[in-house]
Design goal:
This protein is α/β, with parallel strands linked by helices. The chain has a single domain, classed as TIM Barrel, CATH 3.20.20. It contains 13 helices and ten strands. Strands 1, 2, 3, 4, 5, 6, 7, 8, 9 and 10 form a ten-stranded mixed β-sheet that branches. A hairpin with a 2-residue loop joins strand 3 and strand 4. It is globular, with a radius of gyration of 18 Å. It starts with a helix and ends in an 11-residue tail after the last helix.
């Protein structure tokens, strides 16, 4: 976001919920060793994803014995992996001025309690309060060393430093590998009902395993991601957003401009972030939507 503050007109005055940012779906599944074909959605570490430009992370945690593990469905990592990966990730984020949004998905409140005991003291001073998340500019957050927003699923609702995920996001998930159905779902999320004005939009382009019919049903998530029609869903969303953005810049009516701008904002969440050149370019294209619709920008 440092480059955006310098080069993207108007970016500094926006709130986190007003910008476009790349996200990763099931961000820590690279640590899973069982049923990898259907449980692994990412190949890069949390730290690597962050350094590539991902700013929204979907991290799922549950208690196992005395520690926490990453999980996806019924598959989980080992305790050592989760502890070391989170430590490395938080260390990197805390050494930067980059703002990140963490969706922390716990299986129950006991797992949340354990996360709070093990990690919250390290990041507490850098967390963004719910009120600041909804109202203050990115420039203010960075200037005041507030760069970690926590959206929690299966915690205790809204607290001094955490927001409830369900109550503060919208967009939904298509849960399909049918490219037309998924495109229809994510395009429908562009239009913000009045009650969603202060919420974070999360556009989920990820396509699940074991759905549909025929042999494609058993393709792994990563194999399916290699198919051109799979990537075209994300590319199409980016291209449509760019067209809307360019039209917005030409509008003179303030109300119409605000309505168009609301169609552009939000997280674009992907599988296999940075898995190859094509996915890296998609990530950069998402970031570039903050540069007034230009083609992708390499910092």
């Amino acid at each position: 976001m440092q480059q955006l503050l310098i080069h993207a007109p108007g970016f500094a005055s926006k709130r986190l919920i007003d910008i476009v940012m790349p996200g990763s779906h099931d961000s820590a599944t690279y640590t899973l060793n069982s049923m990898k074909s259907f449980s692994v959605t990412q190949t890069k570490t949390l730290r690597e994803q962050f350094l590539m430009g991902v700013r929204y992370f979907d991290i799922r945690l549950k208690q196992k014995g005395e520690g926490l593990v990453f999980f996806h469905g019924i598959i989980s990592s080992d305790v050592r992996s989760a502890s070391s990966e989170l430590a490395s990730f938080f260390s990197t984020v805390l050494l930067s001025n980059e703002v990140v949004i963490l969706k922390l998905h716990f299986d129950n409140t006991s797992s949340y309690d354990l996360f709070e005991r093990n990690f919250m003291s390290d990041i507490l001073n850098r967390t963004i309060t719910p009120s600041d998340f909804r109202t203050l500019s990115i420039k203010w957050l960075i200037a005041n060393n507030k760069n970690i927003a926590l959206l929690v699923k299966n915690g205790y609702g809204e607290t001094e430093y955490c927001m409830d995920y369900e109550a503060n996001t919208f967009g939904g998930w298509g849960k399909t590998r049918d490219s037309q159905k998924l495109t229809s779902k994510i395009e429908s999320s562009r239009f913000d009902p009045t009650e969603n004005i202060a919420k974070l939009k999360v556009v989920q382009t990820n396509q699940p395993a074991l759905v549909g019919s025929g042999s494609d049903r058993f393709l792994s998530v990563l194999e399916h991601d290699q198919k051109p029609e799979s990537r075209q869903v994300t590319q199409g969303y980016i291209e449509t957003t760019r067209v809307i953005l360019k039209g917005t810049l030409q509008r003179q009516n303030t109300e119409e401009k605000m309505e168009s701008t609301s169609q552009i904002r939000g997280v674009v969440s992907m599988d296999n972030v940075g898995g190859d050149t094509g996915k890296t370019i998609l990530l950069l294209e998402i970031i570039a939507l903050n540069y007034k619709g230009k083609s992708y920008y390499v910092p």
